[in-house]
Amino acid sequence: MQILTLYAATLILFLALDAIGITLIVKPVFDRHVGDLLADPLRLGPAVLFYLAYVAGILWFVSAPALSEGQPLRALAGGILLGLMCYGTYEFTNLATLRGWTWQQVAIDTAWGGALTGFSAWAGLAVTRMIHG
């Protein structure tokens, strides 16, 4: 039951924070540099698959081990590292292969991914510990 709580809490936090971050931080930069490449409307199916799988990855690699060890700061640090690696992979690949991709996009989205993943992993763990003691 703890794992279900951990997954739900992490997913809800991740989605809420990412909606804010995309709107205020990421989308304005992407609109400026590659706005003509953005899907309109957003394709929800792939987005849903990404969020469900990515949060499962957060739990597998970061949150579940930190929960079993009682180490919430491990969730924060591991989440930051995982986010930097995953978002950085996307960003650096795009920078290497797509015309018009910029270092500004790489820096902003990679930093956002690290902060978002780290905080969501830590906060999801905190909520789970609060609920399950």
TrEMBL record:
TM region positions: 43-61, 73-90, 110-131
Transmembrane keyword on record: yes
Family annotation (InterPro entries): DUF2177_membr
Top-rank lineage group of the source organism: Bacteria
Keywords associated with the record: Membrane, Transmembrane, Transmembrane helix
Protein name: DUF2177 family protein
Organism of this sequence: Mangrovicoccus algicola
